[in-house]
Amino acid sequence: MRIALLHSRIRIEERLLIDALTSRNIDHDVIDLREQTFDIHEPGRWTDYDAAIDRCISQTHALAATRVIERFGVPTINPASVIEACGDKLTTSLLLARDGVPTPRVRVALDEAAALAAIEHIGYPCVLKPTTGSWGRLLARINDRDAAEAIIEHKSTLGSVAHSVFYVQEYVDKPQRDLRVFVVGTQAICGISRQSDHWITNTARGGRAGALTITRDIADISARAARSVAGESGGLLAIDLLECPRRGLLVSEINHTMEFRNSIEPTGVDIPGRMIDWVIERARAGAEAAAGVSA
Amino acid sequence: MSNAANTVTTSHQVECPECGASVRFARAPLAGEVTRCTGCRAELEVTSLSPLRVELAPEVQEDWGE
Ligand SMILES: Nc1ncnc2c1ncn2[C@@H]1O[C@H](COP(=O)(O)OP(=O)(O)OP(=O)(O)O)[C@@H](O)[C@H]1O
Ligand SMILES: [Zn+2]
Question: Full-prediction pTM beyond 0.80?
Fold first, then answer.
């Protein structure tokens, strides 16, 4: 078996995944996508791989590369369809809504006046988010109409085209924390709770992480969310949950190249090891299917 | 597969291009590895292994994330 690890930089996470491959004696290549050119007519050495793990930090690049590599017949983890579903918050919300997975209310608008109408419809406070991006960047909580008008104007004037889609979400009056559940396949293997005095509670903004007990409710909603974006077999995902005082657990978003360096110690779970074991299982299943071993 | 990570060399150490502080890697670094300078907090990326060289890592882009 041979596995490719696709990246655009080696962070602690990639290092730990490489270590997990090495310790399992799996042949692997660490491939910097920035150095690649792909001949779309000629897969070449790509067919040597039984699977490719995407750890690229740019979602645009990850999507392009996995589309090509999947076309060459190599399963990518996560697949391009999952990157598409998770990389864009609107797509994620649409899939969750389609499948009836509890999630905050969202309205989308494409024009400034319509954005203001959408915000007023959701009511104050509400949250305006770029549809792509991570680490809580450029999230805005809007408390009143003055702020709404100002932010809409700023986005229209200063934002890239990506900001011309206004994604408005109800503000969930959660306790000062959010929950992150690590899912392998569709199984919630562990989770953390991230606490902060700021309303953006994820660790990128200085939130503190503690272990989370995986209750049946948490496992259920996480599995449903994973199926919604990745189909029956699920994927390698981090599901962010918000605790709504009225509606209970809501899926806030789903990450397809999750960071986990600060979650191993509080949970005591070997997250990279569990990820790699799943990749190996998928690669084996793919190879057997290709060889016609399994029905 | 390379055993570089296990090779004992005297130091995986290089000068920060931003502030001149010495940046040390606990293990033999890999090409593309990122680290933060403890002197100036700049994010650095390994651009060459021999000789070991680091450069300022690219700025975060709009579509970067988890
Ligand atoms: N609708 C909301 N109501 C209340 N808090 C929210 C809401 N949306 C986001 N937050 C807070 O902001 C944090 C970041 O939000 P979100 O996950 O949408 O952004 P992100 O940039 O994708 O971050 P990341 O991918 O790193 O988790 C959440 O963890 C949560 O604490
Ligand atoms: Zn420095």
Answer: yes
